[in-house]
Amino acid sequence: MDWKTIITAGLVAVIAATGAVFATKKDVQVPNIGAASPEFITNYISVGGMRQWSYKAAMASASTTCSFLSPAATSTLLYAGATFTNTYGGSFDVAWGKAADPFATTTSLGYKPAAITSGDQGTFVATSSGATIEEPTSVIAPSTYVNFKIGSSSPTLAGTCVATFIEQQ
User: Which residues of 7-18 are buried (b: 16+ CB within 10 A; e: fewer)?
Assistant: First the structure.
């Protein structure tokens, strides 16, 4: 046999083997998981190792109108706000605070004294201004309550409260 015949036979064998490999390859099926939605049924979303917890609640008819339990790990309070209408008829103070129980505002996150009068509407937002780097009020210990309270024995506020935490994993 001459070299031309050997090289030609070798090329034919390589082409045939390559064709056999591609002929037996199966198509990969991608499952249909449905349409994506911007709505989540849980209170948290984890992205890149960071977990964000978000809550919303209607105001209750009590001196503590809203209470949110922080995550079971140290977290940072990004935002806490109460949007309301005073249907009480009198004036009273409002406060955001954090505490070990759902009825207290042991550490203040914001206070407005006797300035909410009948018919007032507004949004009152918790803040960490004035906090020091060593002990910022926006850092929330595990399983701590963030509460919105009003200074009235007969509260009648209509509205909602929201809170957002970032869990420090």
Answer: eeeeeeeeeeee
Phi, psi of 4 (to 5 degrees): -60, -45
pLDDT, one tens digit per residue, over 68-125 is 999 999 999 988 888 888 777 777 788 889 999 998 888 888 887 766 677 777 777 8
| Bridge partner residues of 149 (DSSP) | 64, 95
Report the sign of the C-alpha dihedral through residues 77, 78, 84, 90, in that order: positive
What is the maximum span of the chain, computed from C-alpha positions, in angstroms? 111
Match 């090289």 to its residue by tokens: 7
pLDDT in tens, 146-159: 998 887 666 677 88
Q: Which residue has the tokens 């009198």?
A: 90
List all residues 6 or more positions away from 37 whose beta carbon is below 8 Å from its beta carbon.
none
Sequence-distant (6+) residues with CB within 8 A of 22 are none
- Count of CB atoms within 10 A of residue 81's CB? 18
Helices (H) and strands (E) in the chain, counts: 1, 10
pLDDT of residue 164: 93
pTM for the full predicted model: 0.69
Helix H segments across the chain? 3-24
